[in-house]
Design brief:
The complex is a heterodimer of chains A (about 525) and B (about 325). With about 525 residues, chain A is an alpha/beta fold. Chain A contains 18 helices and 19 strands. In chain A, helix 7 packs across helix 11 (about 300-310) and helix 15 runs parallel beside helix 16 (about 445-460). Chains A and B meet through helix 1, strand 2, helix 2 and helix 4 of A and strand 2, helix 3 and helix 9 of B.
């Protein structure tokens, strides 16, 4: 059944029109829905498609047409009622519109005693907004990326002069006074403080600390540019200083991909002199005992979480490179591999998890190619077909520009899973899944059909495709961890307790049990 | 009792066309009010008041909103009267916009040196593939799949399937240089598709803009191409939304938003990496507008590089 409704004097931008079309199309019993401007040609095309109604010919160009094709009258009425609700609730300035602050000043009018602001605007405006916030005496969490290092330095120096904390730019996660900013997980309060130049690194360590029975006092994101030589680790140093003085924090974890040597030396000097135990995880960096002094080095994020818990006086469960029951499951997988299946293919939403996987895989399987490689000669374009062992950061700029982050939008990763499944050299797919604030409401539901399809596609070509994943999450996360695990397992995924463990498991499968467990 | 002055906003940039329209107009009316724009119809044409940060464009007046309100929160309604006093725009007596210290957005319409034909083709292919991988295909973007004459019509949505044969007819009319057929083909596309600027209009704007910029940069001129510009300049009137009409008119004069102009520049003179990054930027414009505009740019570009219509000025 097809029907059109004309609405006059309703002004919606393209995004609203498309969102309404999409929302109506997804309603039960609706096979097609369109909310479009009533131009002559749109009216004609709709009429030709059978949407002719009594009033379609009376519409004017700037009117809005709601066209719905539903299987029965009940579905049609429900869809048109929903359309009306959407129109009424989304109108600019209408009573139903949530009035979000459009600027810092407006936000401060609403919350005059705020002392921190989260800013997420296009990169070219980020410096201006953050600078304004600092001048108003606010600590800043700057989510925006595409801010130059010069601008970052300027902002961080201004923050330092005013005694404020400048988290970011390109800061994905912080937990301040037990409130999550950006992407993050429902971790319990506790004695571990974190300062991290990596968003997913912070998430992985904080959730592993939670799984080890402890919790987080503060987790300060610095933004990925902080540990560059130009910026000089200003926020890392400030975060460490603040955690040293924080009575709730008993042990501190510092996380970064390999920093500039000069900055690493500066931060390590502070860590050595810190009155509290400090665990340093500069992924892939070779930290000597002399450089670390009293601080403790951790090779992986998993090691860092465990070491921090020990330093805070807890006894985390004993370390197993890969849990025994997973080794047993994996040993049933590799005998099914075809001879051509030789390589691990990691597709990551978390950039630091991608990097950690390379750190773990390299010593076991040899060179690992990546769009964010450990060594420059292993660099490949992210969108190019995978080469040998490969770990691809699907959250890299080349993938996310103009799109949502892959922790929210799985479209590109799903496409890539299908491509890897079609490659006869793929021995095992390695995935990360992030739950928590900001992430997709049902990541396992998004990935599982693709995993099933990938396995089926491989099977149709006479191959068996193992899939290994880790889930960055706690049981308190909104997406329901148990349900997410069950959904992925039902799709044939082996789930490891950490990214490092999942990587070892993948290596073990690809090498037919020869690597990974050590 | 004291009268309350309406808020006064400072314009940061004014598009070239908007500047000319303000210079020649005294009165007008509010055409539409949206969260992200207030469109004002003046005697010389339509201008769009948009908040920073927004793409700079020929009809845009980008205004700083110090109190951060959405453009829809000033109590304005369609039909409100507008007056222009010198460099101040009085919108419905509820909002004053000063353009006194605004910069002029007036991008170059000529890019040199233009790449050899083969590199231009490669750039167009990179843009097309980037659009397919990253664009919002729910307008006409699915038609980007029609690489090398591939027929994709079986799987298209309502508006894309209506647009596909019409676009083919337009391409053919431009190839033939047939002004009457071109005018008819343009009228059969104008106003078609979803969006406040309907998808086909975005496509037409991208196509025209690339062809104008290519012709100015490489001195190409063809009867079909000029007929297309004439049809867009005049034939859209009353057939689509006021905003779309304004954009089509500007595109036919070689003026477009920053994102599409910078893509055209990269296609004509740049390396593949620049093409990909600028395509991605264009894809971020609007909901489907960026992707639909890209489709037009690619179609316009492919018409320009076809052997029979080889633009002059290329290096051998």
């Amino acid at each position: 059944m097809k029907k059109v409704v004309i609405r006059k004097g309703i002004y919606r931008d393209s995004i609203n029109l498309m969102q309404m079309s999409t929302a109506l199309s997804k309603l039960p019993g609706v096979s097609q829905a369109a909310v479009v401007m009533a131009t002559e040609l749109n009216r004609r095309v709709l009429a030709e498609a059978g949407f002719a109604g009594s009033d379609i010919s009376r519409a004017a160009t700037d009117d809005m047409i709601v066209a719905v094709d539903a299987r029965d009258a009940k579905s049609l009425d429900a869809a048109l009622a929903e359309a009306e609700d959407l129109i009424l609730s989304k109108g600019p300035g209408s009573a139903g519109e949530a009035r979000l602050p459009g600027s810092l000043e407006e936000a401060l009018q609403a919350v005059p005693d705020a002392n921190m602001v989260l800013i997420s605007v296009p990169g070219r405006f980020a410096r201006r907004e953050a600078s304004h916030a600092l001048s108003r005496g606010l600590n800043v969490f700057l989510f925006s990326s595409n801010v130059s290092l010069d601008e970052e330095l300027e902002l961080k120096e201004a923050a330092r002069e005013r005694g404020l904390l400048m988290m970011g730019p390109d800061c994905g996660t912080s937990i301040i006074n037990h409130k999550v900013f950006g992407f993050g997980n429902a971790v319990r309060p506790g004695p571990i403080g974190i300062v991290s130049a990596s968003g997913t690194g912070l998430q992985e360590v904080s959730t592993l600390v939670h799984k080890n029975g402890l919790g987080i006092s503060q987790a300060i994101g610095t933004g990925s540019g902080d540990m560059s030589e130009l910026v000089g680790g200003i926020t890392m140093a400030e975060g460490l200083r603040r955690l040293e003085g924080d009575p709730e924090t008993k042990a501190i974890v510092l996380i970064s991909k390999p920093p500039s040597p000069k900055v690493a030396a500066k931060v390590l000097a502070m860590a050595r002199d810190c009155k509290k135990p400090v665990v340093v995880n500069f992924l892939g960096a070779d930290l000597t005992a002399q450089a670390l002094g009293r601080a403790r080095g951790a090779r992986t994020l998993e090691d860092a979480a465990r070491a921090a818990c020990s330093a805070a006086g807890a006894q985390p469960p004993s370390a197993e490179a890969v849990p025994r029951e997973l080794v047993a499951s994996a040993s049933l997988e590799w005998p099914k591999l075809a001879e051509s299946q030789r390589y691990v293919r990691g597709l990551f939403a978390g950039g630091t998890l991608c990097y950690e996987a390379q750190v773990v895989l390299g010593p076991v399987v040899g060179d690992v190619y990546s769009n964010g490689p450990i060594r420059p000669e292993l660099k490949v374009e992210g969108e190019a077909p995978s080469k040998k062992h490969a770990c691809i950061d699907m959250g890299a700029e080349e993938f996310v520009e103009g799109r949502l982050h892959p922790m929210i939008d799985f479209a590109l990763r799903k496409t890539r899973i299908a491509k890897e499944a079609a490659d006869p050299e793929t021995a095992v797919l390695l995935l990360d899944v992030e739950l928590g604030y900001g992430s997709n409401p049902d990541p396992a539901g998004e990935l599982s059909p693709s995993i099933r399809d990938a396995k089926a596609a491989a099977a149709s070509r006479g191959r068996y495709l193992p899939v290994v994943a880790s889930i960055v999450a706690t049981e308190g996360d909104l997406q329901n961890l148990a349900k997410q695990e069950a959904t992925l397992r039902d799709a044939g995924t082996l789930i490891a307790p950490s990214n490092a463990s999942a990587t070892r498991l993948a290596a073990m499968i690809a090498s037919r049990g020869k690597g990974g467990a050590s | 009792m004291t009268a309350v002055d309406p808020p006064r906003l400072e314009a940061v940039t004014v598009g070239e066309a908007a500047n000319a329209i303000l210079g020649g107009s005294r009165r007008g009316r509010v055409e539409g009010v949206y969260r992200g724009a207030v469109n004002v119809s003046l005697r010389g044409g339509l201008v769009s008041l948009v908040p920073e940060p927004s793409e700079r464009g020929p009809i845009n007046i980008n205004v700083a909103l110090p109190d951060g309100r959405p453009m829809s929160s000033f109590g304005l309604q369609a039909g409100d009267k507008v007056r222009v006093y010198g460099t101040t725009l009085d919108v419905g007596g509820r909002l004053l916009v000063s353009t006194r210290s605004a910069g002029l957005y007036s991008p170059s319409m000529r890019f040199e040196p233009v790449l050899p034909l083969e590199e231009l083709r490669r750039n167009l292919l990179a843009a097309r593939r980037t659009g397919l991988a990253h664009g919002n295909l729910s307008g006409l973007g699915e038609l980007l799949r029609a690489e090398g004459g591939q027929d994709t019509r079986g799987s298209l949505g309502l508006f894309a399937s209506a647009a596909a044969p019409r676009i083919e007819a337009l391409e053919e009319s431009v190839r033939r240089g047939d002004a009457a057929l071109t005018a008819r083909a343009v009228s059969e596309l104008t106003g078609l598709g979803p969006g406040l600027t309907p998808s086909s209009d975005d496509m037409l704007a991208g196509m025209a803009l690339f062809m104008v910029l290519c012709s100015r940069s490489s001195h190409v001129s063809r009867p079909g191409f000029e007929a297309l510009l004439r049809a867009l300049g005049s034939g859209a009137r009353g057939r689509t939304t006021a905003l779309s009409e304004a954009y089509l008119k500007e595109a036919s004069a070689g003026r477009g938003n920053e994102a599409v102009v910078s893509l055209c520049e990269a296609l004509l003179t740049g390396r593949e990496g620049a093409v990909v990054s600028r395509t991605r930027r264009l894809l971020g414009v609007g909901e489907t507008s960026g992707t639909d505009t890209l489709l037009g740019v690619v179609i316009g570009g492919e018409l320009c590089v076809e052997p029979a219509h080889r633009p002059g000025g290329h290096r051998p």
